[in-house]
UniProtKB/TrEMBL annotation:
<dbReference type="InterPro" id="IPR038765">
    <property type="entry name" value="Papain-like_cys_pep_sf"/>
</dbReference>
<feature type="transmembrane region" description="Helical">
    <location>
        <begin position="109"/>
        <end position="127"/>
    </location>
</feature>
<feature type="transmembrane region" description="Helical">
    <location>
        <begin position="61"/>
        <end position="78"/>
    </location>
</feature>
<keyword id="KW-1133">Transmembrane helix</keyword>
<keyword id="KW-0472">Membrane</keyword>
<dbReference type="InterPro" id="IPR021878">
    <property type="entry name" value="TgpA_N"/>
</dbReference>
<feature type="transmembrane region" description="Helical">
    <location>
        <begin position="133"/>
        <end position="152"/>
    </location>
</feature>
<feature type="transmembrane region" description="Helical">
    <location>
        <begin position="84"/>
        <end position="102"/>
    </location>
</feature>
<feature type="transmembrane region" description="Helical">
    <location>
        <begin position="35"/>
        <end position="54"/>
    </location>
</feature>
<feature type="transmembrane region" description="Helical">
    <location>
        <begin position="164"/>
        <end position="182"/>
    </location>
</feature>
<dbReference type="Pfam" id="PF11992">
    <property type="entry name" value="TgpA_N"/>
</dbReference>
<feature type="transmembrane region" description="Helical">
    <location>
        <begin position="12"/>
        <end position="29"/>
    </location>
</feature>
<dbReference type="InterPro" id="IPR052901">
    <property type="entry name" value="Bact_TGase-like"/>
</dbReference>
<keyword id="KW-0812">Transmembrane</keyword>
<dbReference type="Pfam" id="PF01841">
    <property type="entry name" value="Transglut_core"/>
</dbReference>
<feature type="domain" description="Transglutaminase-like">
    <location>
        <begin position="413"/>
        <end position="483"/>
    </location>
</feature>
<protein>
    <submittedName>
        <fullName>TransglutaminaseTgpA domain-containing protein</fullName>
    </submittedName>
</protein>
Length: 673
């Protein structure tokens, strides 16, 4: 079928594609530069103005070329800040916007159609939730409706939607089969690293950073356990180890990064010797644009795919080989009773006895540490003296501590004596270093909400920090001073450990979700999103192999060949069922169907049979047994039916709806004489 011969600007297809492109651009609000998004909105407005005929002349090609050159120069300037990935995203949106402005030929329409499809695929780089998947699916269907509208402009829009819906339902089983059997190949190229804003923890932490992070109700990751969940007090999810302290903030030590780099060059990965009981679980982490992963100590990769994608550091943290730019699933086995004494003490002590270069920072803490060292001899006594101080002085656990900009440790320990977990962990780690005990701060998450009996959902407000100190003969030992001040933080979660009014105080949506109805809807959505992440996004090569083992028993080349042939046969039968014309029953035109129904109604009332009578002859026979009004209606129907069969296409289309209405009225009101 050929499209109608009129300018692209006046066709509904151009307006539909313009609207889809506009919605796509707005869905990429976060990775797009503001001025790029503004250009795409303006291009959509220009296209709609031309579609409605409010302004006819198109911008000249010289104007568009000049605008494109200026956009490329501006984008090149910003590319140094946003990275290669986001530069390519913005460039594609700019190209689509400029093409939308000069849309005037069928080739332009097809180019823009393909561009929108590519942008939809690119959107899954940033959004992979089940809601966004449905959203992008609807946009894809809208694009197909626009294309169908271009080739069949005489058909009404509901006809296109219905036809596309039927074809989508037909294609669904084929898509599912292909999803299950097509080999899960590794990517052909590496995704460029984005410099967009990271979510969650960062590798430089001040005491107030984690307190701010707890105001976010966004999901951090989910963990599915094989068996029972760990007790609440044992749910310490290590993310990164902070070993460098400058007197105010903690960060990953540059020396630790250098050691990791050397070990990678030598392919000398840290392999802890684990023992005792374990917890086995799968983690599905949200994108963070960082390398660190989450695990309970001591965690090791649990399968081949996870081992290949994870690098195990000598500080007992797990690192991804590539940044986490999309949802990532990996399997871990944790051994909580394994002693953490298997690293090189020479390196660890050098890193974790480091003190700030400026000795004038926190002088009161230094004097207090000297007093503790004089009163206590052993490491255990000194650690206990620090913990006892938090209890004896009546410290308070709060999300809204006062600012402590100049001497943060002194102000926290001796003036304000209130703070969040990072304040306690930072102060204790620094004091232990002053006492000659290697200590470091570990940042991660603690706790998690039970989504199912074996599933934990960990949110950003579960962010936590604790202390690890090296004790002779025991290695690294975990201490959580905030857990001593607020035991409810470990057993019941953050909301029970702080004042209720300060929990998620700045997040109105999260506060709304605390209502019973919204909490139930939130749990329902979380469960749906979890199942989507686990069974669809997490359907990797290993799970595909497990599925083949379940279907075939022993996986051999011959059995796989028979399976592929069988699936190809099923797909071929489905396609034959859908598209072989003589298998499908041809439906009569609507006018004929309604005329036959009206004739059957007349036969039913009068008791006459039509046989092979023509419409007018049967109307005369039936009029003798119908009421005057019904006889008049039936004669009008027969005359209109004859007129429709011999009318021109345009006239028939205009009179068809009126004829159908006449038939419906007669069927409903017909009476005998």
């Amino acid at each position: 079928m050929q499209p109608i011969d009129k300018p692209i600007r006046n066709q509904t297809a151009s307006a539909l594609i313009a609207l889809v492109f506009c919605v796509l651009s707005m869905s990429l609000f976060e990775p797009l530069l503001f001025w790029v998004l503004l250009i795409s909105l303006c291009a959509t407005g220009i296209r709609l103005v031309m579609y409605f005929g409010w302004y006819q002349p198109m911008p000249s090609l010289r104007t568009i070329n000049l605008l494109g050159l200026l956009c490329c120069l501006c984008l090149g300037w910003f590319s140094l800040q946003i990275g290669l990935l986001l530069t390519m995203v913005n460039l594609l949106i700019l190209a689509g916007a400029l093409k939308l402005i000069i849309l005037n030929r069928p080739r332009d329409l097809f180019h823009l159609f393909c561009t929108c499809l590519f942008v939809i695929g690119m959107g899954f780089t940033f959004h992979q939730s089940v809601v966004m998947t449905l959203f992008y699916g609807l946009l894809t269907l809208s694009l197909l409706v626009a294309l169908g509208r271009y080739f069949s402009p005489s058909q009404h829009l509901p006809w296109h939607i219905k036809r596309l819906a039927v074809m989508s339902v037909q294609a669904l089983p084929i898509a599912i089969l292909l999803f299950l059997i097509l080999p899960k190949l590794p990517p052909l190229w590496k995704m460029p690293v984005s410099k967009s804003t990271e979510t969650g923890l960062t590798d430089t932490v001040t005491p107030g950073d984690i307190a701010n992070l707890t105001q976010s109700g966004e999901l951090a990751f989910r963990a599915t356990f094989t068996g029972a969940l760990p007790p609440p007090a044992e749910r310490y999810w290590r993310a990164l180890t902070l070993e460098y302290f400058d007197g105010k903030q903690w960060s990953v030590s540059p020396l630790r990064k250098q050691v990791r780099k050397q070990y990678r060059l030598l392919n000398n990965e840290f392999k802890p010797r684990v023992s005792g009981s374990w917890w086995e679980y799968e983690v599905i982490t949200e994108p963070t644009n960082k390398h660190w992963l989450f695990s309970i100590d001591v965690g090791i990769p649990d399968d081949l795919n996870s081992s290949q994608a994870i690098w195990q550091s000598s500080d007992y943290s797990l690192l991804s080989e590539t940044p986490i730019t999309s949802r990532r699933a990996y399997r871990v086995r944790s051994y909580p009773t394994t002693p953490m004494d298997q690293t090189l003490y020479s390196i660890d002590s050098r890193l974790n006895l480091q003190l700030p270069n400026n000795p004038a920072v926190n002088p009161q803490t230094q004097a207090w540490a000297e007093q503790i060292a004089a009163d206590n001899v052993t490491q255990v006594e000194r650690v206990q003296a620090v913990l006892d101080y938090f209890v004896d002085q009546g410290f308070r656990y709060t999300l809204t501590p006062p600012p402590m900009p100049d001497h943060p440790i002194d102000d926290f320990l001796f003036i304000h004596q209130e703070g969040f977990c990072a304040h306690y962990a930072s102060a204790m780690s620094y004091v232990l270093r002053l006492l000659g005990i290697p200590a470091r701060m570990v940042a991660g998450y603690h706790g998690g909400e039970s989504l199912q009996p074996d599933v934990l959902s960990v949110y950003q407000y579960d962010a936590h920090a604790w202390v690890e100190a090296w004790l002779d003969g025991r290695g690294w030992v975990r201490f959580d001073p905030s857990g001593i001040v607020a035991p409810a933080r470990l057993e019941l979660g953050l909301q029970q450990a702080v004042e209720e009014e300060s929990f998620l105080a700045n997040n109105q949506m999260a506060r709304l979700q605390q209502l019973p109805l919204f909490a139930e809807l939130r749990n329902l959505y979380s469960l749906l999103d979890y199942q989507w992440s686990r069974w669809v996004l997490g359907f990797d090569a290993e799970r595909q192999q497990n599925l083949l083992v379940l279907l075939l028993g022993k996986v051999t080349t011959q059995r796989i060949m028979f399976l592929m042939l069988g699936i190809c046969l099923v797909i071929g039968l489905l396609l034959a069922l859908y598209f072989i014309p003589h298998w499908q029953r041809k439906r009569p035109p609507a006018n004929l169907r309604w005329f036959l129904q009206a004739s059957q109604k007349a036969e039913q009332i009068t008791g006459l049979e039509r046989h092979n009578d023509g419409p007018e002859h049967f109307a005369e026979r039936a009029a003798q047994r119908l009421s005057p009004q019904s006889a008049s209606q039936f004669k009008a129907i027969c005359q209109a039916f004859i007129a429709l069969n011999y009318a021109r296409d345009g006239e028939a289309s205009a009179q068809s709806n009126a004829f159908i209405t006449q038939c419906k009225t007669f069927i409903r009101q017909a009476k005998a004489l």
